[in-house]
Task: structure prediction
Amino acid sequence: MISAGKFIVNCDLAATQRIVAIGDIHLGAAQCDKKLLRETIESVRTDPNALWIGMGDYGDFHDIKHRFFAASDLDPEIYNANNIGNFSRATQDALVKEFEPIKDKCIGLVMGNHEYNFMRRNLESGWMDDFAARLGVQNLGYRAVIHMVYRQAEKASSGKSKKKASKAKREEVKYTIFAVHGAGSSGSVSGKKKRLQKYMDEVFVGADIYLMGHVHLLDYTLDTKLTTNEAGTEIVPLPRLGVITGTYLRTFSDSALPGYGEMKGYAPTALGSPTVSITPSLDLVGVETKFKRRQG
Ligand SMILES: [Fe+2]
Result:
């Protein structure tokens, strides 16, 4: 587990800032919705107030050593006769190509169980470090705490107003994020939400925002604990937001050959990524879990 330190965002504190949690992409699987992924990436690229965090399972990693390997499950646009012998590099190249346009807006990359197990299976413990290094971002490991610091950006000005601006520059609002790929194999929505609540109640209690992937669901929860003010003279509520960060992997194939999600009986799920919105000057935190009605 990593404490990732501060991630400083110079911005207009009155403007709504966004963090898009992109995970469980399973690129390389024939059932990965690349079109939707590219739309999400484009929405981050074109939004000046958007950042993103990677939530793990970037690749599907069902290589020939995996018990679910099936040639029909591989994306033919990614794997071919020339690169299948270097499955690791082919997967990483495809991922780097997808995320290249938004690499400068990345908070960091959480590692998924599909990365971890691929690395373990193939003695490639450096795969995740290499992937993060190629994008120039931080490898956050399986779970991490990130301290987001939103600072009022200095506005271009001169004379008297310059003094005002430098005063405003010191204004900052902080939020703590706990991000984890996730665990568990419950197929029910309540079981998946319970897993998120477990992280919120039993693993790390001091965050404002919890992000969890792995369970392939778009959902969120809000709860409130009590704490005291800094002086210790007042009981104050501490509201917390927990978000389950979706997927891009369809659980059904469009042919007679089933994907592994279909074989395992996974329920269909809405695809996409949730967006956490933060308006620092108002101390407002929200979440948007939009999805496309027609997918694939
Ligand atoms: Fe996943």
